[in-house]
From TrEMBL:
This is Glycerophosphodiester phosphodiesterase. PANTHER family: GLYCEROPHOSPHODIESTER PHOSPHODIESTERASE, GLYCEROPHOSPHORYL DIESTER PHOSPHODIESTERASE. Residues 13-251 form the GP-PDE domain. It comes from Neobacillus rhizosphaerae. Keywords: Hydrolase. Signal peptide: none annotated. The keyword Cell membrane does not apply. SUPFAM superfamilies: PLC-like phosphodiesterases (SSF51695). Coiled coil: none annotated. GO terms for molecular function: glycerophosphodiester phosphodiesterase activity. The gene is glpQ_1. The lineage of its organism: Bacteria, Bacillati, Bacillota, Bacilli, Bacillales. InterPro entries: GP_PDE_dom, PLC-like_Pdiesterase_TIM-brl.
Length: 251
């Protein structure tokens, strides 16, 4: 897998809208994804979890408490119950019509418009989620041709290994958030290389040496979550491959 992927866009670093354009709209909603596309992103970043009736939904937290007018765990509620909620007013009353999106509804509306950076969020809570996501992508023919159109990432390395076995043509990204260069050992980087093409670190752990080491091991790197223009300038100097931002107009 190492080094086998290519970033299809002419511009490096590629621009990735974090949960859409989460700085401007309620995260992971249609409004947020539309805004990010309007601002010219190459990819939308989304978080996927699973409902009580085994449907894939786009939401960041394992509970609905922060980003809707309801309470409870995503895994304890059905898709119908989740989609009855207001997923926008917490951000601003003008977004009161925003709903939690199903993964299939999201793909219907956005898959043809942009690349997708799909995060399997807390997959250990949702046994079988890798198969579900893989099947949805396969069914729609999204794994053919331009393979970098879809990238699947997670903090959960076991889940990523499972996904890679299911769909080896889809590039995998390992999310990391340890601090300092020593926080990511060569041994670890080598272990990622059996299944991943990207190593995606939190911005707080970035330095030039770390990026060089990641590249040296044959990975591409997408950095999150970038909110300031001055960080964009710095990251460009470090030759990173992509920037994940809440404000997709700071690129
Ligand atoms: O894309 C990386 C980033 O989204 C990971 O952190 O918490 O925002 O999902 P989080
Ligand atoms: Ca995420």
């Amino acid at each position: 897998v190492k080094g086998s992927t290519r970033i299809p866009k002419s511009q490096i670093p590629i621009k990735i809208g974090h949960r859409g354009a989460a700085g401007y709209c309620p995260e992971n909603t249609a409004a947020s994804f539309k805004k990010a596309i309007e601002l010219g992103v190459d990819y939308l970043e989304i978080d996927i979890q699973m409902t009580r009736d085994n449907k894939l939904v786009i939401i960041h937290d394992p509970t609905i408490n922060r980003t809707t007018n309801g309470k409870g765990h995503v895994k304890d509620l059905t898709l119908k119950e989740l989609q009855a909620l207001d997923a926008g007013s917490w951000f601003h009353p003008k977004f009161s019509k925003e709903k939690i999106l199903s993964f299939s509804g999201f793909l219907d509306e956005f898959a043809e418009k942009t690349g997708l950076l799909i995060e399997l969020k807390k997959p250990s809570l949702y046994p079988g989620i890798e198969e579900k996501v893989a099947n949805e992508l396969l069914k729609r023919g999204l794994t053919k041709g331009d393979t970098d159109k879809i990238i699947v990432q997670s903090f959960d390395q076991n889940s990523l290994k499972r996904f890679h076995k299911l769909l080896p043509s889809v590039p995998i990204g390992v999310l990391v958030k340890k601090r300092g260069v020593k926080g990511l050992s060569n041994k670890e980087l080598q272990s990622f290389s059996t299944y991943a093409a990207y190593v995606n670190p939190k911005i707080t752990m970035i330095n030039k040496r770390l990026i060089r080491r990641i590249h040296h091991h044959g990975f591409k790197t997408l950095v999150w979550t970038v909110r300031k223009k001055k960080d964009v300038h710095l990251l460009k100097r470090y030759n990173i491959d992509g920037i994940i931002s809440d404000f997709p107009d700071i690129f």
